[in-house]
């Protein structure tokens, strides 16, 4: 569906509606939201702690409709995980394997290129590429991987490598992050996913992912990427040992960097899946926690264009509800997702365009297929075009 057909609904503010809540802490927050004032750290804590989650959701939906009307975005994408061999041993991870582990794998270049095209008939607009921190694969391997994908699929946008992977590749190659990013850009990387941010709080990070770069290095890597013209996403892993203060701190750090660079496109809250990790004694998140996190993210990240309800993590049903709690994006078809399914995710490996459109439409929203840069995609039987 062409984006032009949605005007003027998607550019109008939601109809005026009296805000009601039984939680008096939300009244001053609502006044700020309705007058488009920025929320504070204290406001964020109140949103997390309010028992009136429907009122929190109403405010988030108000902002979502002010920004996007009824539009909900999705894309046709393909996940590629070239290797699960990783030098890190993060307690949050069920995906990574040490070198020599029988369950470890590393694709040869030809295997990775074949995986990009296998089992799929529709025209993909995005390859989403992340993997482990392999102790032996040089930067040249990844440059060849990207270059080969661009040669074979010149119209596909390549969203590749988290800030953690980029910093690791730079260190191994004895290059600066900027030099590494320039090489990746020259090979064909178009943008970056938002993974590896986890939780920025030092206390939490030292327990769940002490082998990864710290918060400041993650943010500095993103800053460098944005200054070079890359767009990226940002994430937060929630539902493990973090507290409300940690979550608010994480959102505020992302908001501050976005004020500076304007390089983030989408924020993606990721629910922690404890199965098959060293933290498997922790409970899984509830649906209430998931939709609250979407709502608080939309309200606190006033400078982020998009909030994604990642259906792979929170299930299609909860993601559908999240479209009324601040989310305007469902991610995409995915096809084969390894990282969260290794951690026990019971969601499907992929959804079709038809299934995604049904989820969106039944939520009372308007499905709009996008490319990675949120340009609308119009399809015919044999091809597709991207709005410019």
From TrEMBL:
<dbReference type="InterPro" id="IPR006638">
    <property type="entry name" value="Elp3/MiaA/NifB-like_rSAM"/>
</dbReference>
<keyword id="KW-0479">Metal-binding</keyword>
<dbReference type="InterPro" id="IPR022432">
    <property type="entry name" value="MqnE"/>
</dbReference>
<dbReference type="InterPro" id="IPR058240">
    <property type="entry name" value="rSAM_sf"/>
</dbReference>
<feature type="binding site">
    <location>
        <position position="198"/>
    </location>
    <ligand>
        <name>S-adenosyl-L-methionine</name>
    </ligand>
</feature>
<keyword id="KW-0004">4Fe-4S</keyword>
<comment type="similarity">
    <text>Belongs to the radical SAM superfamily. MqnE family.</text>
</comment>
<dbReference type="InterPro" id="IPR007197">
    <property type="entry name" value="rSAM"/>
</dbReference>
<keyword id="KW-0949">S-adenosyl-L-methionine</keyword>
<dbReference type="GO" id="GO:0102573">
    <property type="term" value="F:aminodeoxyfutalosine synthase activity"/>
</dbReference>
<keyword id="KW-0411">Iron-sulfur</keyword>
<dbReference type="GO" id="GO:0009234">
    <property type="term" value="P:menaquinone biosynthetic process"/>
</dbReference>
<dbReference type="InterPro" id="IPR045567">
    <property type="entry name" value="CofH/MnqC-like_C"/>
</dbReference>
<keyword id="KW-0474">Menaquinone biosynthesis</keyword>
<dbReference type="InterPro" id="IPR034405">
    <property type="entry name" value="F420"/>
</dbReference>
<dbReference type="GO" id="GO:0044689">
    <property type="term" value="F:7,8-didemethyl-8-hydroxy-5-deazariboflavin synthase activity"/>
</dbReference>
<comment type="pathway">
    <text>Quinol/quinone metabolism; menaquinone biosynthesis.</text>
</comment>
<feature type="domain" description="Radical SAM core">
    <location>
        <begin position="72"/>
        <end position="305"/>
    </location>
</feature>
<dbReference type="InterPro" id="IPR020050">
    <property type="entry name" value="FO_synthase_su2"/>
</dbReference>
<dbReference type="GO" id="GO:0051539">
    <property type="term" value="F:4 iron, 4 sulfur cluster binding"/>
</dbReference>
<dbReference type="GO" id="GO:0005506">
    <property type="term" value="F:iron ion binding"/>
</dbReference>
<feature type="binding site">
    <location>
        <position position="86"/>
    </location>
    <ligand>
        <name>[4Fe-4S] cluster</name>
    </ligand>
</feature>
<feature type="binding site">
    <location>
        <position position="93"/>
    </location>
    <ligand>
        <name>[4Fe-4S] cluster</name>
    </ligand>
</feature>
<dbReference type="InterPro" id="IPR013785">
    <property type="entry name" value="Aldolase_TIM"/>
</dbReference>
<comment type="function">
    <text>Radical SAM enzyme that catalyzes the addition of the adenosyl radical to the double bond of 3-[(1-carboxyvinyl)oxy]benzoate, leading to aminodeoxyfutalosine (AFL), a key intermediate in the formation of menaquinone (MK, vitamin K2) from chorismate.</text>
</comment>
<keyword id="KW-0408">Iron</keyword>
<feature type="binding site">
    <location>
        <position position="90"/>
    </location>
    <ligand>
        <name>[4Fe-4S] cluster</name>
    </ligand>
</feature>
<dbReference type="Pfam" id="PF04055">
    <property type="entry name" value="Radical_SAM"/>
</dbReference>
<dbReference type="Pfam" id="PF19288">
    <property type="entry name" value="CofH_C"/>
</dbReference>
<protein>
    <recommendedName>
        <fullName>Aminodeoxyfutalosine synthase</fullName>
        <ecNumber>2.5.1.120</ecNumber>
    </recommendedName>
</protein>
<keyword id="KW-0808">Transferase</keyword>
């Amino acid at each position: 569906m062409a984006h032009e057909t949605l005007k003027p609904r998607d550019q109008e503010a939601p109809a005026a509606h009296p805000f009601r809540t039984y939680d008096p802490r939300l009244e001053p927050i609502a006044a700020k939201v309705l007058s488009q004032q920025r929320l504070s750290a204290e406001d964020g804590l109140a949103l997390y702690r309010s028992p009136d989650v429907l009122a929190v959701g109403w405010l988030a939906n108000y902002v979502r409709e002010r920004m996007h009307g009824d539009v909900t975005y999705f894309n046709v994408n393909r996940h590629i995980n070239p290797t699960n061999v990783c030098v890190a041993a993060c307690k949050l991870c069920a995906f990574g394997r040490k070198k020599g582990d029988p369950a470890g794998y590393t694709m040869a270049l030809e295997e990775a290129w074949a995986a990009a095209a296998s089992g799929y008939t529709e025209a993909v607009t995005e390859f989403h590429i992340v993997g482990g921190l392999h102790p032996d694969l040089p930067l040249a391997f990844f440059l060849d991987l990207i270059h080969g994908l661009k040669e074979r699929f010149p119209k596909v946008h390549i969203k590749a490598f988290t800030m953690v992977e980029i910093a690791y590749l730079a260190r191994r190659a004895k290059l600066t992050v900027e030099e590494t990013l320039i090489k990746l850009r020259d090979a064909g990387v178009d943008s970056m996913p938002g993974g590896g941010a986890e939780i920025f709080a030092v206390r939490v990070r030292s327990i769940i992912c002490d082998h990864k770069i710290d918060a400041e290095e993650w943010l500095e890597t993103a800053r460098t990427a944005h200054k070079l013209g890359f767009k990226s996403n940002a994430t937060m892993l929630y539902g493990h040992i973090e507290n409300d203060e940690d979550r608010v701190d994480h959102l505020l750090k992302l908001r501050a960097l976005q004020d500076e660079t304007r390089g983030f496109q989408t924020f993606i809250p990721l629910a922690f899946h404890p199965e098959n990790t060293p933290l498997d004694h922790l409970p899984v998140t509830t649906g209430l926690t998931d939709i609250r996190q979407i709502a608080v993210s939309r309200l606190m990240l006033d400078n982020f264009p998009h909030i994604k309800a990642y259906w792979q993590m929170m299930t299609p049903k909860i993601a559908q509800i999240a479209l009324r709690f601040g989310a305007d994006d469902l991610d995409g078809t995915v096809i084969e997702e390894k990282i969260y399914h290794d951690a026990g995710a019971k969601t499907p490996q992929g959804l079709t365009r038809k299934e995604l459109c049904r989820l969106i439409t039944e939520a009372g929203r308007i499905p709009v297929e996008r490319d990675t840069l949120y340009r609308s995609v119009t399809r015919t039987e044999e091809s597709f075009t991207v709005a410019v």
